[in-house]
Amino acid sequence: MNKSSLERMERLLAIAESEGIAVRSEWLGGVRGGLVRIGREAILFVDESLAVAEQLEQARDSLSRLDWSETPWSDEMRELLASDG
């Protein structure tokens, strides 16, 4: 897969949203974003103050902690979560 960081980020977030994860892109000023649960709702906070490549790494780090093997996105997520792109 030879995609830009922005394309990979957009696809990663689209898959997360399709699996019920709310995505919030906000200016966090360098405060580490990440995946949180509030009750039954999962929310991924992405720091808009970071460059796209850093946002992608932040999202990858958070989403790689989840098990995607039982989703229709299993193979694609394995590729998107790989750090070498």
In short:
The chain is α+β, with helices and mostly antiparallel strands. It contains three helices and three strands.
Distance between the termini: 7 Å
The share of residues in helices is 40-55%
What percent strand?
15-25%
How many individual β-strands?
3
Q: What overall geometry do the principal axes of the alpha carbons give?
A: globular
Strand order of the largest sheet: 1-3-2
Q: Unreliable segments (pLDDT under 50, ≥5 consecutive)?
A: none
Radius of gyration: 12 Å
Count, helices = 3
What is the helix/strand order? HEEEHH
Give structural attributes.
85 residues, alpha+beta, 3-stranded mixed sheet, 3 helices, 40% helix
Describe this structure as you would to a colleague.
With about 80 residues, the chain is of the alpha+beta class. The chain has one domain. It is about 40% helix and about 20% strand. The chain is built from three helices and three strands, in the order αβββαα. It has helices at about 5-20, 50-65, 75-80; strands at about 20-25, 35-40, 40-45. A three-stranded mixed sheet has the order 1-3-2. A hairpin with a 2-residue loop joins β2 (about 35-40) and β3 (about 40-45). α1 (about 5-20) runs parallel beside α2 (about 50-65). The longest helix has 14 residues, at about 5-20. The mean pLDDT is about 90.
